[in-house]
Amino acid sequence: MKTKPLVLSAGDPAGVGAEIIAKAWTALRWEGPPFLVVGDARSLASAGSGIRIKTVTGPAEALDVFPTALPVLDIPLLSPVISGQPSSAHAAQIIRCIETGAGLALSGAVSGLVTAPIAKAPLYDAGFKFPGHTEFLAELTDAASFDGARGPVMMLTAGSLRATLVTIHKALKDVPGALTMEAIVNAGLVTAQALKQDFGIREPRLAVAALNPHAGEGGALGREEIEIIAPAVRALRDLGVDAQGPSPADTLFHAEARARFDAVLCMYHDQALIPVKMLDFWGGVNVTLGLPIVRTSPDHGTGFDIAGRGLARADSLIAAIRLAAQIAARRAA
Question: What residue ranges of the chain have pLDDT lower than 70?
């Protein structure tokens, strides 16, 4: 029986998505994993440095096409694309690509979804109501994990580091008010389950980062560790999760510390993304945990400043494709 392909949503057509997809296909066409793209075939062809594009009707046809052409489920744009200039005129098609990819993954026709970068502002101008891909996919898939814990939980990976987030797209000033014991426990449970199911770690170890410098210095630099984070860690242990913390974030990310845990639960966006990008700026991957589908994405944005110039690197997208295939294989085993 043939394997199922992955599906890639093409992202914002004015960004680097089409270029890195073309480069990823060139790198993976013979060794796999195979994928098809949901997007505007004309835009993909124009960004692909002469690669062959073939429109397909679905995943089964894409498997036969993949080694010799980039298979595309065509969703044509209704207005021209200017590289580096995002437009709300493309918003409906961008959203439709994501919805189509998620639908294929939910139906089981593909093994997982990999999303090329989108820009939020043009989508907001067209009425998009979600902070980003992660929250939109949770809505599309009615995400739920186990024992009452719900996704989505964002994980960033780079080499041996896996970092998950309690809060995602929050202004820093709003993070303390958004931290609750329930949110931390939920993220910890989803992370532990994903480490078992998706990463093959039988007894996962979870480090929990503090919010404040020096883990609050006994309350002198903030009481979130005492009143919220430490009780959440105790609750996770009571639920059977090997969780330790809260630990000062500046002690968690060097090589010796990383050897002591399988993932670190971070309180806010940059607490996780800075160490991930320091470890592997070009090859980091964003994984959404707690969804009924496999979903990964490159750990970078749309790159409007370099779009259309042939400068974009596909390392992160290639890593996202490979990781999605690995997770899908574990779930199917």
Answer: 1-2, 48-49, 143-149
pTM (whole model) above 0.90: yes
List of residues 6+ apart from 300 with CB closer than 8 A = 117, 284, 316
Q: How far apart are alpha carbons 333 and 329 in whole angstroms?
A: 6
Q: In terms of C-beta density within 10 A (0-12 exposed, 13-18 middle, 19 or more buried), how is residue 160 classed?
A: exposed
Task: Verify that 43 and 171 share a domain, yes or no.
Answer: no
Closest CA to 117 of 327, 323, 320, 278: 320
Tokens standing for residue 14: 């004015």
Number of domain units in the chain: 2
Domain with 159 in it? 144-290
Q: Are residues 185 and 197 in the same domain?
A: yes
> What is the 8-class DSSP label of residue 293?
S
Over the stretch 184-236, which tens digit does the pLDDT of each residue have? 999 999 999 999 999 999 999 999 999 999 999 999 999 999 999 999 999 99
Query: What burial class does residue 61 get, using C-beta atoms within 10 Å of its C-beta: 0-12 exposed, 13-18 middle, 19+ buried?
Result: middle
pLDDT digits (tens, 9 = 90+) for 10-52: 999 999 999 999 999 999 999 889 999 999 999 898 876 678 9
CATH of the domain at 81: 3.40.718.10
Helices 91-107/133-141 angle, 10° precision:
50
Whether residue 17 contacts residue 122, with contact meaning beta carbons closer than 8 Å, is answered with no
275 and 206 part of one domain: yes
